[in-house]
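lol ok so funny story. i was supposed to be doing the assay writeup but got distracted and ended up predicting the structure for this chain instead. priorities right. anyway since i did it might as well share w the group, maybe its usefull for someone
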Amino acid sequence: MLLIPTVVKQLPPASAEWVNRLKKAYKNKIALIHPSPIIILGHQKSGTTAIAALLGQISGLPVTIDPFHHIDLNAHLRQKLFKQELAFDDVLQAHKFYFSTPIIKDPNFTFLYEDVSQRFPQATFVQVMRDPRQMIRSVLNRLKLPGNLPALEGNWCKQLQKMPAKGWSLMLAGDLPHVEGSNYIERLAHRWNWATDTYQVHRDKINFIRYEDFVQDKAESIRDLAQQVGLNPIHDISAQVNIQYQPRGNYRVNWLEFFGKDNLQRIETICGTRMQSFGYHLSPSPITSDATSDKVPHFSGFAAASV
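and the output, tada:
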């Protein structure tokens, strides 16, 4: 087995791809779906990757990051799942390897919670929450898109459609899953509401951590969360906590400058009630240039707490 990577490198591209497919098929054939994984939920760009990875490092357990990215790059499976044209268990059986680790993270599970929790009744769930203004800004930074447009048109749409991962363009179009919204900002805001409602409806079954509290003391937050979900935090992760697991965006941007008044108001109108219930302050009314991302308060006592 140790010779396979060397052999693959020496093969022509087409042959190497065939060998890689064979390796994946073999792994999937022998893999067993984990009966009781820790499943990390949360909207895309909420810090789920960092928190899942650090949970694995502090406990020494393997982690699967974004199985749908590996098995569904064109988003066809997810579209069928959201339309209830495909059973979640069929996806698991066809791709067992990606559901075999004790920790599994995928933001799409947040919008498929009922299906996932029914298939994994013994799972432990964790949801990561982040201020919707920061989450939406981070998504758009990741996609190299501005936040102040009334609509994504022309070259912006072409740029988005060229991405190999088709989930992003479907997400901004309000189709993964279907959400309302007159523009891309409103659709992302409604998606944040959906993710928030997943936690609110099932809060007795989901452990909770705010991203803003996590970044105040990453190592201690992960240690506390690990103990809460039944993991043994045996490793020192102080050297890993500042590793950049996803492309870094400009988290200190002025919200009014990034979104413009209209789009910032759209986010706060759609998400405002839920934001305040999780300790996220709204911008001053009327919205002024003081609407900056460093105004989010520490929500004492709520980090990594099941409520």
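DSSP finds 14 helices and five strands in the chain. The radius of gyration is 20 Å.
back to the writeup now i swear
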